[in-house]
Amino acid sequence: MRTGIIGTLLALTCAISIQAAPPIRVMLLDGEQGGPYHAWQETTPYLKRMLNDAGIFQIDVVTAPPRDGDFSTFKPDWTKYQVVVANYDAPDERWPDSLKASFVEYIRNGGGLVSVHAADNAFPNWKEFNLMIGVGGWRGRNEKWGPHFYYQDGKLVSDTASGNAGSHGARQPYKLVNQVTDHPITKGLPKEWMHVADELYANLRGPGENMTVLSTAWSDPANRGTGHDEPILMVLAYGKGRIFHTAMGHDLAALNCVGFMTTYQRGTEWAATGKVTQKVPRDFPTADKTSTRAEYNPPAGWTSPGGPPRPRPKQ
Questions:
Q1: How confident is the model at residue 21 (pLDDT cuts 50, 70, 90)?
Q2: DSSP code at position 22
Q3: How far apart are the C-alpha atoms of 176 and 196, rounded to whole Å?
Q4: CA distances, 198 to each of 36, 108, 144, 270 (Å)
Q5: Helix, strand, coil: what percent of the chain each, to 5?
Q6: Is residue 204 within 8 Å of residue 141, measured between CB atoms?
Q7: Bridge partners of 150?
Q8: Among 43, 108, 299, 303, which is disulfide-ready with 239 (CB 3.0 to 4.6 Å)?
Q9: Across residues 29-39, what is the average pLDDT?
Q10: Whether 148 contacts 205, CB under 8 Å
Q11: Interatomic CA distance for residues 229 and 236, integer angstroms
């Protein structure tokens, strides 16, 4: 009897200890994008909600000053957070050197970073930022920034041919292939799975140092694609810091993909802690079928910025 009581008490103690684990502190950074087609005011609440739904994060939204704002007093305390989620795209001159230096120190000393979709367009001439994200596009990037990385015959190719960085076709559903299946972010996921209609980023260029491409997607020449398996999900190391880079997530319709939600939640946990404790949801997409959730449907009458109206999916 006494042994049973002791065992029960130990089990209760362990359960209380697990429940009492502090949440992962997340800064969700927004405030600017390269154009109205990337509507951060719309996407930030969805990105925050996804992390809240995971039940392990505590999220603060930090909005940087606008392009004509005063950055002299914008001095985020990065060290309060285990990971920064960047839903943010700004040109090089936007941040003063002191702000850039503080961010570099934060990541180098073990801070996490998650780069979502157009965040990889930001700061083209900031060397350290390009090292963090591995590859990026637009804002004048070309072969001088680094190779075009893609998968071919099961291997990562670094193509040094000349060309501008960054392209995509019309927003269409596409299939992801997990090239690395034993990483904490992709472990347990189907080898192949369908993503809903989104921009398939291609021709991304950069230094690609300390970068592992987790997942790729075929960029179809019939849709202005490259004819290559382009990197979509990546992880990188920068000093002691961990970076998760997802090229998905153009708009609200693209965010309503269980595959995006799952990899985003798992990628944020990994960038913060180096581990993933979240299970793969039962409604994760398959190799031939996308998966969405009704609670993440865009509002009735919603129109994608820069695109035609999209009908609201049936409940």
A1: confident
A2: P
A3: 11
A4: 16, 32, 28, 24
A5: 30, 25, 45
A6: no
A7: 157
A8: 108
A9: 96
A10: yes
A11: 19
